[in-house]
Automatic annotation (TrEMBL):
InterPro entries the record matches: COX23, COX6B-like, Cys_alpha_HP_mot_SF
Location(s), subcellular: Mitochondrion intermembrane space
Region Disordered, residue ranges: 1-23
One of the record's GO cellular component terms: mitochondrial intermembrane space
Listed name of the protein: 2706_t:CDS:1
Role of this protein: Required for the assembly of cytochrome c oxidase.
One annotated GO biological process: mitochondrial respiratory chain complex assembly
Keyword vocabulary terms for this entry: Disulfide bond, Mitochondrion
SUPFAM superfamilies reported for this sequence: Cysteine alpha-hairpin motif
Amino acid sequence: MSSTSSSFKPDPKLPTPNIHNSYREKQASQFLEPCELASKATFRCLDRNNYDKRKCNREYLQYRECKRKWLEERKELRRQGLL
């Protein structure tokens, strides 16, 4: 086995380990979660209620409504060519 490992040569078509450094060094994403507050409220409710989803229906509905509105806005912006 040791003779096999000493004769091993990496495939030049495959990315080298340095490619991982590029991903680590890239800047943080500019993406923002517009419904972050509603999402956090949902998780807080779940924490308070021992993860019983039935007790957090109001928070779930608020989060879903927020996401629905946000996605509709993004679709409209794409239609207008602004995104």
